UniProtKB/TrEMBL annotation, chain A:
This is Sarcosine oxidase subunit alpha family protein. Residues 617-887 form the GCVT N-terminal domain. InterPro entries: 2Fe-2S-bd_N, BFD-like_2Fe2S-bd_dom_sf, FAD/NAD-bd_sf, FAD/NAD-binding_dom, GcvT/YgfZ/DmdA, GcvT/YgfZ_C, GcvT_C, GCVT_N. It comes from Roseibium polysiphoniae. Residues 907-992 form the Aminomethyltransferase C-terminal domain. Pfam families: Fer2_4, GCV_T, GCV_T_C, Pyr_redox_2, SO_alpha_A3.
From TrEMBL, chain B:
Pfam families: SoxG (PF04268). This is Sarcosine oxidase subunit gamma. It comes from the Bacteria. InterPro entries: SoxG, TrmE/GcvT-like. It comes from Roseibium polysiphoniae. The lineage of its organism: Bacteria, Pseudomonadati, Pseudomonadota, Alphaproteobacteria, Hyphomicrobiales.
Length: 1000, 191
């Protein structure tokens, strides 16, 4: 029984290498070189799944990536990947696959009841049924739809595979390695151009791998393919990428490829990534994507055993598999005849060739006659029978008027059909090209070029092997010439045989059946029938875009490559409008389903985003600090001692800083060196504050607005020399402030002699804050007089610290005496450890960002991004003191005069004190006038910062409140789920309002 | 050129194990250097070149190298100047003296960035796992230097040989860049 449908010889499989695999638990055998589909067929298995909506038994329809039916789950390393196309799954030892969309088993499926209930599920069923009553949606309809929806089961575990990324460039990318693609690659490579040739299949060669009825340069097609690949492999300028799908064509000839590296290997080397994303910039692209065969739309055209004719031929010639013992070939074009001949020659009984055409070519008829094959002309399949596999086809004779009369039936175990060929224009369409209807080809073909690409061969409607080859060579030559300007003398291979055929049909075929009782499928995967498309038209959907969404035709994973043309023809007939007036939907990326892993590549875990660490990071880690993410930085959040939670640790750190001193890593602050004779003038324009009179060695707090007048950044700026400023920015704002400054310099004020350089990472910064701060740093400072008179608050000086060069700032973000020690970054760890030791000796401690936040909130210092949200002006924040009143101009000055920014009732920064000092408000909580506002009452403001303040012995909060400064002393309310919290409005400075401590 | 510079400027950091050592590619962290960001208009070039002791390149994306120093064109008004670590003050003074009152900006960025040497047959391939520019020898020849991105990190890339590159990144990005390079190189260990 094993592989009883395997031929004696032939095909591209390796008959010396047997492979065992399982399907739904059954142990089966195949050969290396098989796909799961070909191996199943070799074992006589056609039925591999149940359909999406009606749960009808479905078989393998195609041999390619457009396969709509044979979707399987494959187990690997304890997890299961759903919805793989069996036609693309390469067989390997131990492969474990399961069918989908069936319960409890493929043979007996309770969901199949949908098929009998199908009159209840017409097109647009969801839209119609679940509209009413509204209240049923959340509890009834949606849960049921969700439970029934979807194909396959998602994997349960995190993806354990690795995925790689590669950026690449080439002169000519050739997509597809059939005759046109190989010829294009050969021609382009010959010129010396850098060529990449990719193909979604495991083996390069495309249709040539199943072509036996032709010769190329006197060789068999497969011998010619092998020679061509050897030639290409030997060339340094060529990269061959089998198992690689060009899935997306983007702007400026940027093409994304998904290379599958290990999925076909039984036990892959764990060092290998599973897939690689190629982000490829090609100067020229040759699209040689070929064409695919159209199924015929007749009643019950979806039974297992029914297959596209060329797929049947491919399984025979390429994989050595007979699709059945007795096949009926139903066709409207010539090519399927060759399938019948090949199968007959392999010993498959051909029940008949039923050709829709009244007069198929004489030549074909005489070949059939010679083989003793029965030929029926003007003949159409009007139905099929068989429970899990076709056992009989009903035939009808089409009269000249188009009516159909029964022509009996024929027993068969397989049916090969061909409605003609549809060029694969997906990539062309993705390149933003618009397809044009070609009456002669009966197909939509690539039209005008939008990008640097050209289609070759059957993807532009050209057939006949010799013509396709010649077209490929020409496309390759032209592409190389366009990319490099070079050309070469290329000898075209000449083919004989496999000439272009004629014929083809579009849309539903005529039949003599009761239209209300039969299903003729247009889109197999989405279970859309000809009837559904007609219904959609009757119900008012006149554009293909509407029909598509109403019926879901063309929305399956093949994006309608199999179904679009038939659906379009049915709609066009129902609308009595020309096909071109109905339109064609746009093909979009990705060409075939692509894993999330391929898109993510290595951007996961620690590599999702850069994790930036400060010079004290290792010390802090060793000291069990808790960290928080601030932008890309890891910052020490607090330093808990044994048994302390965050509240206890922060309370202790706050008290120690206020009473003694603390050490804080401020290295992440953005730093920009502004240098040049016009440095002060530049800052004058960028910041609200005046700078020209700032003395060398002095610092000033700077406030930066955008053009609209809103606060976007702040920081302390120190004047190092007449022409040199040390600017600091917020941690998160550093890159954007730098970019904004550079932008203004390049576009607005190119006349200024000033340049900016980022020095964020040149310096490590240790902040020592607290009454004992001076004592802690004094032993290490040389060259700077630290006495309060010589070095008062807001000073900067250069000297050395621990013997290394240092820029010392006397500044404070705590309200205490404070110093910020800037040393070259690689000395940062040494300086930190030295200071930590000294600070501890004086009874101080290290503190993290949380304590920093509490201390500055006690002082009412804002944090940009916390007290501001892009709509806060200096006046809103109570910071008009930072605006240089006499300044001629600065960024945002005009914005500040906008009527809405000077209007009354703007939200202003205030302090809030809860009536109950133990209650700490929630940041972001809304503030209202009334304790119990009616639903829908707009809030008067919100809490921006809220902490327990050890210095105040109570909770404190900052808030933006409408007209807040006028409300000082008033009671407002913060409504919360557990009840409203009364708060009193105060000024924003809670601690040491006069600032005496700063100057100690 | 490459060998000289590797030994005199981008010396492997003494005592440090290579970050990666495979037959086809290796990654070495290099010892500290004096690095200066120099900005100014075209008029300053002559004086700056004199002060630095090396002609500042004017061809975009090019480098000039001397026995113990190098200058990279990074933008129409921006150069990165390299010298040996102990030459920092001397180099800055030399430039300051030569430039006098001519408007310019000279900023010490020695500690801002660190460098790695990525060498081997697969060096270009490995870098292209995260760098989007074309590293084919004709498109990015030996001697070319540019700022670019490695995945999400800004880097500076200088080709010092057909199979040898210097990658500079700001200090806090080094772990990210090196980590992703090592991750991408893992497949080279496959049998």
């Amino acid at each position: 029984m094993s592989q009883s449908f395997r031929t004696e010889a032939g095909g591209r499989i390796d008959r010396d290498r047997k492979v065992t695999f399982s399907f739904d638990g059954d142990q089966l055998e195949g050969y290396e070189g098989d796909t799961l589909a070909s191996a199943l067929l070799a074992n006589g298995i056609h039925m591999v799944g149940r359909s999406f909506k009606y749960h009808r038994p479905r078989g393998i329809l195609t041999s390619g990536s457009e396969e709509p039916n044979a979707l399987v789950g494959v187990y690997r390393q304890g997890d299961q990947t759903p919805n793989l196309r069996a036609t693309q799954v390469e067989l390997y030892e131990g492969l474990k696959a399961i069918s989908q969309n069936r319960f409890p088993s493929l043979g007996f499926d309770v969901g199949a009841v949908n098929d009998f209930l199908s009159p209840l599920f017409p097109a647009g069923f969801y839209y119609k049924t679940f509209m009413w009553p509204r209240s049923f949606w959340d509890r009834v309809y949606e849960p049921i739809i969700r439970a029934a929806a979807g194909l396959g089961k998602p994997p349960k575990n995190a993806d354990h595979d690795r995925y790689a990324n590669l950026y690449a460039h080439c002169d000519v990318l050739v997509v597809g390695s059939g005759p046109a693609g190989l010829a294009a690659a050969l021609a382009a490579a010959e010129t010396g151009a850098r060529v990449i040739l990719c193909d979604e299949q495991a083996e390069l060669g495309g249709s040539l791998l199943s072509e036996t009825a032709a010769t190329i340069d006197g060789k068999t097609p497969v011998d010619w393919v092998e020679d061509a690949i050897r030639t290409l492999q030997a060339m340094d300028n060529v990269t061959l990428l089998p198992r690689t799908t060009a899935f997306g064509y983007f702007a400026q000839n940027f093409v994304a490829l998904a290379e599958r590296i290990t999925d076909h290997v039984s036990e892959p080397d764990p060092n290998l990534p599973r897939e690689r994303l190629w982000q490829l910039r090609a100067k020229e692209v040759v699209i040689a994507a070929g064409s695919i065969e159209r199924p015929m739309v007749f009643p019950e055209n979806d039974r297992p055993g029914i297959m596209n004719a060329e797929a049947g031929r491919t399984y025979l010639n390429r994989y050595g598999v007979k699709v059945g013992h007795k096949a009926l070939v139903a066709t409207a074009c010539d090519t399927a005849w060759q399938a019948a001949f090949d199968l007959a020659d392999a010993g498959v009984e051909i029940a008949a060739i039923a050709d829709l055409r009244e007069n198929p070519p004489e030549a074909l008829q005489s070949i059939a006659q010679a083989r003793g094959i029965r030929v029926e002309t003007a003949c159409v399949v009007t139905g099929t029978t068989g429970r899990k596999r076709i056992d009989k086809a009903l035939l009808g004779r089409v009269s000249a008027s188009g009516s159909v009369a029964s022509a009996g039936d024929l027993a068969c175990d397989s049916l090969l059909m061909s409605g003609g060929w549809t060029p694969t224009v997906s990539l062309y369409s993705q390149s933003r090209g618009k397809v044009m209807w070609d009456e002669a080809a009966g197909a939509f073909l690539p039209g005008q070029h939008v990008q640097n690409e050209r289609s070759a061969g059957s993807s532009r409607g050209l057939y006949g092997l010799n013509d396709v080859l010649a077209d490929g060579y020409a496309a390759g030559e032209e592409a190389a010439k366009a990319a490099t300007g070079k050309s070469a003398k290329v000898t075209y291979a000449v083919a004989s045989g496999a000439e272009a055929g004629s014929g083809g049909t579009l849309g539903a075929l005529p039949d003599d059946r009761d239209a209300s009782r039969v299903k003729a499928f247009v889109d197999y995967q989405n279970d859309v029938t000809a009837k559904d498309v007609k219904l959609a038209v009757r119900e008012g959907m006149h554009s293909i875009e509407h029909i598509k969404r109403y019926t879901t035709t063309g929305m399956a994973t093949d994006q309608g490559r199999l179904s679009n043309m038939n659906a379009l023809a049915i709609a066009s007939k129902a609308l009595d409008k020309p096909l071109t007036d109905v339109g064609l939907t746009t093909f979009r990326q990705p060409f075939t389903p692509t894993t999330f892993g391929t898109f993510a590549t290595s951007s996961r875990g620690d590599f999702f985003d850069p994790v930036r660490k400060t010079p004290s990071h290792q010390w802090a880690t060793d000291s069990d600090a808790a960290f928080e993410d601030v932008g890309q930085w890891k910052r020490a959040w607090y330093f808990p001692k044994a048994g302390e939670d965050i509240h206890a640790a922060v309370a202790r750190e706050c008290e120690v800083v206020r009473n003694k001193l603390g050490l804080f890593d401020a290295s992440t602050l953005g730093k920009i060196e502004v240098v040049g004779p016009d440095a002060a003038e530049f800052l004058e324009r960028m910041y609200t504050n005046p700078w020209k009179k700032l003395g060398v060695g002095r610092c000033r707090y700077g406030l930066m607005l955008n053009e609209a007048g809103f606060i976007i950044d702040d920081g302390v700026v120190g004047r190092i020399a007449e022409d040199r400023f040390h600017v600091t920015t917020t941690t998160g704002g550093a890159p954007s402030v730098f970019a904004t400054m550079e932008d203004y310099l390049q576009t607005e004020w190119p006349d200024l002699d000033v340049w900016i350089t980022s020095t964020t990472e040149q310096y490590a910064v240790a902040a020592v804050q607290g009454p004992l701060a001076r004592e802690a740093i004094a032993p290490f400072v040389q060259g700077i007089d630290l006495s309060p008179d010589a070095f008062p608050h807001m000073s900067v000086a250069t000297g050395t610290f621990c013997g290394v060069p240092c820029r010392l700032f006397r500044i404070s973000f705590t309200g205490e005496v404070g110093f910020e020690i800037n040393v070259p970054r690689r000395h940062g760890e040494m300086v930190w450890k030295t200071l930590e030791h000294e600070v501890a000796k004086l009874g101080g401690c290290t503190y993290g960002t949380e304590t920093m936040h509490v201390l500055r909130a006690e002082k009412g210092y804002i944090i940009v991004g916390q007290e501001t949200d892009g709509t806060v002006t200096p006046d809103d924040a109570g910071m008009t003191w930072a605006i240089g009143k006499k300044k001629h101009d600065f960024v945002g000055k005009r914005g500040l005069q906008r009527p809405d920014l000077v209007a009354d009732n703007r939200k202003q920064l205030v302090g809030l004190l809860t009536t109950d000092p133990k209650v700490v408000l929630e940041e972001g909580a809304q503030i209202t006038e009334s304790a119990n506002p009616a639903v829908g009452t707009p809030a008067d403001g919100h809490v921006t910062s809220s902490y327990h303040s050890p210095a105040m012995g109570r909770s404190i909060a900052l808030a933006l409140v409408k007209n807040g400064r006028a409300l000082e002393g008033k009671t407002l309310h913060v409504p919360m789920p557990d009840g409203s919290i009364p708060v009193t409005v105060t000024g924003p400075v809670f601690f040491d309002p006069k600032g005496d401590r700063l100057n100690g | 050129m490459a060998d000289d510079l590797v030994s005199t400027l981008y010396a492997p950091d003494a005592g440090q194990e290579p970050l990666l050592a495979l037959p086809d590619v290796s990654i070495l962290k290099t010892a500290p250097l004096a690095r200066l960001s120099f900005r100014g208009r075209n008029g300053v070039l002559a004086a700056a070149s004199k002060g630095f002791g090396l002609d500042l390149p004017v061809k975009p994306l090019s480098a000039e190298t001397g026995p113990d120093r190098a200058a990279f064109w990074l933008g129409p008004d921006e150069w990165l100047l390299l010298a040996q670590e102990d030459m920092l003050s001397e180099t800055m003074e030399g430039l300051a003296t030569a430039l006098g009152d001519t408007p310019h900006a000279l900023v010490d960025v020695s500690h801002r960035q660190d460098a790695m040497l990525v060498t081997g047959d697969q060096a270009a391939w490995l870098l292209n796992s995260g760098i989007p520019i074309d590293l084919h020898l004709e498109a990015f020849p030996v001697g070319m230097v540019t700022r670019t991105l490695f995945h999400k990190a800004p880097v500076m890339l200088w080709r010092i040989g057909p199979d040898a590159f210097v990658v500079e990144a700001w200090g806090s990005f080094i772990d990210y860049v090196a980590g992703l390079l090592i991750e991408a190189a893992q497949e080279l260990k496959a049998a």
